[in-house]
Design brief:
Largest sheet: 3 strands, antiparallel
Strand content: 5-15%
Number of domains: 1
Radius of gyration: 15 Å
Order of helices and strands: EEHHHEHHHH
Strand order of the largest sheet: 1-2-3
Distance between the termini: 23 Å
Length: 177
């Protein structure tokens, strides 16, 4: 993964490694679903994962990712900022999402809390368990330490949470990711 800082506005360009694209594209594909769960989109995402992790693990990852996205949606009033499927260019929220999953795989509690904070979600037991399950399902994509390095996370994301309105008491389902 490459990053480039821009001095003038402190923004950072995130360029994901091609190796991680099937994992982040899984979540990008879920965002494309909207309210209608179209089978071809799900099948495409599952097929791209199958090439790396096998059919059974790809199905498990897709199932866990759907539950994970619901857990995040319930806590957010707005959708995550994501890029198009296949794009190596990433957003801070995509990086935070992958960090949440990667950190759950190594039980890095401070980094888990930080990534959840940047996603403006509470790290509930359910979200923690789903993150850990996804870390197992997607382990071949997390071979590098890009998403479990707290110093790298702070360098890319920064120290201040650009807090958005999060209403954890809102029980309505929002079908955006």
């Amino acid at each position: 993964m490459e990053t480039k800082a821009f001095e003038s506005d402190r923004s950072v360009l995130i360029l994901f490694s091609p190796k991680i694209l099937p994992a982040i594209d899984l979540f990008r594909g879920l965002a494309d679903l909207g309210e209608a769960y179209q089978s071809p989109i799900l099948e495409e995402r599952e097929a791209s994962l199958t090439n790396v992790v096998g059919a059974q693990q790809a199905r498990a990852a897709l199932s866990d990712a759907l539950l994970f996205s619901f857990a995040i949606r319930r806590q957010r009033s707005n959708s995550l900022t994501i890029n198009a499927i296949g794009s190596r260019r990433g957003t801070g929220e995509e990086f935070s999402l992958l960090t949440l999953i990667g950190a759950a795989g190594v039980d890095a509690q401070p980094l888990l809390r930080r990534a959840a904070s940047m996603l403006c979600v509470e790290l509930t037991e359910t979200l923690l368990q789903l993150s850990a399950d996804l870390a197992k399902d997607l382990k071949p994509f997390f071979v590098e330490d890009d998403f479990i390095d707290a110093d790298r996370f702070e360098a890319i994301i920064g120290n201040d949470c650009r807090a958005r309105s999060v209403d954890s008491h809102d029980s309505s389902m929002k079908f955006h990711f």
